[in-house]
Specification:
This protein has 1458 residues and is an alpha/beta fold. The chain is built from 48 helices and 46 strands. The longest helix has 22 residues.
Amino acid sequence: MRRHRLLPLCALLGVLFAGLLPNLEAQEDCAQGLEADIYFLVDSSWSMGKENFEHVRQFLYSLIQSLHQAGGDRFKFALVQYSNKPRTEFQLNSYPTTQGVLAHIKAMPYRGGGTRTGLGLDFLIRTHLTTASGSRAVEGVAQAVVVLTDGRSQDDVAEPAQVLWLAGVEVFAVGVQDAVDSELREMASKPHDIHVFSVDTFLTLRDIIQDLVVGLCDAVTRSGGGPVANEAPVAGGGTAQESADLVLLIDGSQNVGAANFPFVHDLALRIIERLDVGRDTVRVALALYNGNPQIKFYLNSYDSKSSVLEAVKGLAYSGGDESNLGLALEEVAKSLLSQTAGGRADEGVPQILVVVSAGPSTDDTGAGDRALKRASVITFGITIGDTATADLEAVATDKSFVLSTPDFRAVASMGDQLLPYINGVVQRTIIVHNEFTEVVAVGQRDIIFLIDSTMGATIINSVREFIRRFVDIMPIGPDQVQVGVVQFSNIPRLEMDLNSHGSREELTAALGSIKPRSGQTINIGAALDFVRTNMLRSEKGSRIQQGVPQVLLLMTSKTSSDSVEAPAMALQRLGVLTLAAGSKSADEQELRKIAFADSFVFHMRDFRSLVRNPKAIVNALSTLAGVVVTEVPTEPVMEITTVQTQKVVRDIVFLVDGSNYIGSSNLPYVRDFMINVVNQLDVRPERVQIGLLQFADRQKIEFYLNSYSSRQDVVNKISQLRLTGGSVLNTGAALDYALVNMFKASTGSRRRQGVQQVLVLITGGPAQDQVKSVADKLALSGVLTFTVTSGQADEALMKTVAFVPDLAYHETSFSSLPAMAELIMPKLITVVGDTDVTTILEETVVAGAERDVAFLIDGTENVQADFAYIRDFIIKVIEPLDIGTDRVRVSVVQHSERPTPTFYLDTYQTKDDVIRAVNGMTLAGGRSLNTGAALRFMKDTILSERHGSRSARNVPQFLIVLAGGRSKDNVKDSAGALKTQGVVPFGVGVKDADPKQIEAISHNPSFAFNVKEFSELSSIPQRLNNYVGLPREELTQVLQQAQSNAAKRDIVFLLDGSDNTRNGFPELKLFVQSIVESLSVSKSQDRVSVVQFADNPEINFYLNAHKTKNDTINAIDNLRHKGGRHHNIGRALQFVRHSVFTSSTGSRRLEGVPQILILISSKPSTDNVRSPAFALKEHGIVSVGIGVGEANTKQLEMIAYKPGFTYKVTDFSKLPSIQSQLVVTLNINKETGETMTGISDLVASKKRDIVFLLDGSDDSRNGLPAIREFIRRMAEELDIGEDKVRVAVVQYSDDTTVYFNLKTHRSKKAIIYAVRNLRHKGGRPRNTGAALQFVQDRIFTASSGSRRLEGVPQILFLLTGGISNDNVSGAALALKQIGILSFAVGMKNATQEELEKIAVSPRFLFNFPVFGELLSIQTEIAAFLQAKIQIEPPTVVGKKYRLVFENQTDSPLSSFIV
């Protein structure tokens, strides 16, 4: 009877479930004939309830039926219910057909209980993922788990989930109602945007079925298990869905060499021959690199394998001393993987880079590596020999992706080893998810995300993932970046206010509330009004009244059902910066009405691409500042919506304090102030121009008035500003420098045209030189000076510096600076200085100056459509010139493969004739550019006396080179020859021109101009005329200034000329020549001398003997071996100090030019070297010691300026292996600011050894971003160097791991890069006591780089998130007894009692409830560490040390005694 009563219910359920099935026609055979084992782990706890469990059964029924439609009997299913304990409903082999599975689900009971998801996962692993239970994993069948839960687990889920991942199981997590987003992410596979699903109610589970089926089918396809049904193969053995973008990046430098290049060439052919190359399958691009990357062909250059192979067969060895892999990686990221170059990242096609290298990189690879990782490029490496291994392992996606071969003969076989990797990516059996997080420094801002909730589960998951990643890189906090979220359909719904969550951890956890909601219509207008009336209020966290930028990002996939125009305008009137992102059926015109400017409308095919390519929107969200004001247009050409109030024409230079008085913590406020000002100005060459100069003890020009011609370019450059640092503020010198270098015609000043010149001084510290007289000088020169100050700046003094006291602005807190932009703006754009501008104009106008101006323009077919722009460009340059036979002469030459003169310098005598000839020009034609050959033609033919040049009469010679593409030949040598002849070249690059070639052509980097489109050329003529129109004296000054900024070094080679080196002397000469090749040899730049020694020293040539590189290299080539039996290095060192590093022989030591000695020796010295070596250091001479064969390493280290300046090779043939390292060591010049002034520098510097001991246990995983950022900020402010501050990082949990020790990294840049790549260690329990003992025994030791025994302060920072599992007292006491200064920083669950045992004093103890608050103490601690620390000296007195800290601050850390 019971059975009969159930029949009607079953029938009813069957009808009900059938009606719920989604339309899944698109999913038929979704797994391409592959098999799959799919396990369901379903929460049936009390929190769910019977009614909701019914919805779960309906969901499971519909999902499994849909999967059966997609995969047929190839898909097998198992199901486990769990609460307090798990229970098997059915196994994979319980039912032979899916009908049996569905029948079981109809009758499945609700069980109730607690929520132990971790136990459920563990049960699934032990009892279901076994062959006995029906698993076909050993046969290669895909394994997938779907977890469904409605609340927080009562046990740990991370560990069993990790077991599943390691076993290759794809895990999908479905959360309902109160499920915790962070927990779902802990369980799910990556990427989370396709593996995590969240819904608001059990009823809406049905809305995610189709997306979940798609995800499961994709997972099965990616797993690549053994197919059951035969598929029609395509050429190459794959399926039609297999695809990838492959870039081959090959070392073309002398690391490979011409003799070995054919082996590398064959490797490339071998890789390509085995792939299915085609437009829809595998696309291939190829580049060679040496000093510069050379793109041979793009991803969309060829559509067939045969064409690609032909192109590769035509490859030729490029050669070159340098091997700049870093530059090449940046070029790949920028130019080879984009959509325009044929890249398909937006379509979900994986992108692969294969780097083939035979030697170490000669530049830093960090920036390029980060760019590729951000773009999720999968990087493999093939290294020949072992010198490139370290670089390739650093840039490869995984170290296992680097393959190595000992020599070139075996390199072709590496293709066979690499191919399975490439095919794995192509066929989606290898999937790599780069987790690359870099916290960016941005100023205060309130950011609101306004999200269309009707976009479906998959899209909402992607949006949530995008926001989470964005939050990960933002400095979240009440005084930094705040985030709010609103979702909307036909009505808006608040998810979180701006002040709901004060830390990154809290905010990330709360993002789980962003869930899909059903709805067919959306009302964007109502949602915009909701944001304005409900969120932009101070009690809701908005800081709009304080002038903090308010940024709103709308994300929608539909057109609004209500009007958006009035709500959008209302937001703009409030100053809100609105961005609009749309996909699918969103109306782009509607988005333009909403966004505050057209450039902030983002339209994409699908928001899922946003997770892969977030850069454009992230940049906008993190750099926008200021407010928007709607202006009434004053003339027809002006846009309706801008960010200014009237027509303003000014030249404005920001002079910014770059010292420690500002510091990295306050820099964002300074940047935001400038950005807020710039955002309210109409920046373009004919309106407002902006320049930026930074200063501390010295000055650094960031950009000139004519460097950037648009507001966005200026804002972008300001956003990238990094402080120079330093504790000395020479404000007067900086003001004078700005007057001389920034307010002149050559750098963009329009003072002659009567344009008001404005200087805005921004400083946070006291001036330490004379400022009043310089300020008066600025005023007399017509410069209107404003001062904007904070911190320790002298407010009264700054009022005397300002043009008038009313133009001096001061705020006690740096955080108030951004709002000051509104206060300063009215006067900044209206006040005029009381200066007689007309007098200046009369004095400086140049009439009838003689000069020869030649144009060399791109005449290839590539510029045909844009040729009118080129003609217009030439006319705009020559229009202001006084053209005539005895005044300005003009010539124009087109070039492609060969140059074609249009007219010569002496062809036309009047301006009208020249303009008529330019207007009548037709394109010469040609396919490619040989600019190097064309430059030689210009030098030998056009700029020669027989064709009208007046160079013999000292008439200035100008050459303007314009190119729209990359030259196929070398431009550097030809350009150098022109410059040597006295020609002043300018480079103008458009579209595909290589900026590095343009810079190489130009007289100096400030004479190089690059624009993206030909239509943008109009911004350049005025900037060119600023130089071409200069009087001869001023032009000479400009050129001399550019020359003086170049590298200057005096380098002496002291060569072993004893009998021991006779056979190796030819190789020794070649090595010296290769070093000289890398230098800029001239009278005003690098100077070179060569001395040989044996029994006694002998000069070959002095520093002032040769004035060109060629002459120097020829002199080295003509060297004859000296000979001699003894090896008196000491005598030779004394000789070079007294006889070579002197003014009479060409040394510029007294002018502050770095003095460098390179000693190359093959044997130990036969005399004493200690005293002569010390004398060299006393004189500020930087010595480098190179030992060959039997040379004594200890002697070399004694001679070398510091230990890192020694090198050793086994014989002379190995000298080239150290060339790149030596060149880096020689980079001591004005630009880098590295000046070696002698041994006194080492003694006087503030030395510290600082160890960061980090809690890497499982409980502290979420704290890693804050900890990383804390260390990074500390490193930014510390004076890091081998002889200054050293830093180590150690992680611990149950055991302790050294990430890097005190001697691993010698530069700030290296440490910051290492910290950014720090990954969480993991493990449990947390053994803090053992970790403290570890750092005492293993880190604070001489072998690890500690200088404790030299009296250098030893400092330990412990950062922990909880209580130790072991005893900390003994280890903490032992550290105190040896004089270690221990800071104890606790977060989250750490206890005060334990921290007190560890900290050296209660003042050095900090305890915070959340990890994010760690950053609040960073500034105070950094200031303390930079105070003077004296140790009196390290001898034990009653187990106490006396440490004295001299600190000018009122910090509680300012003094104490241990």
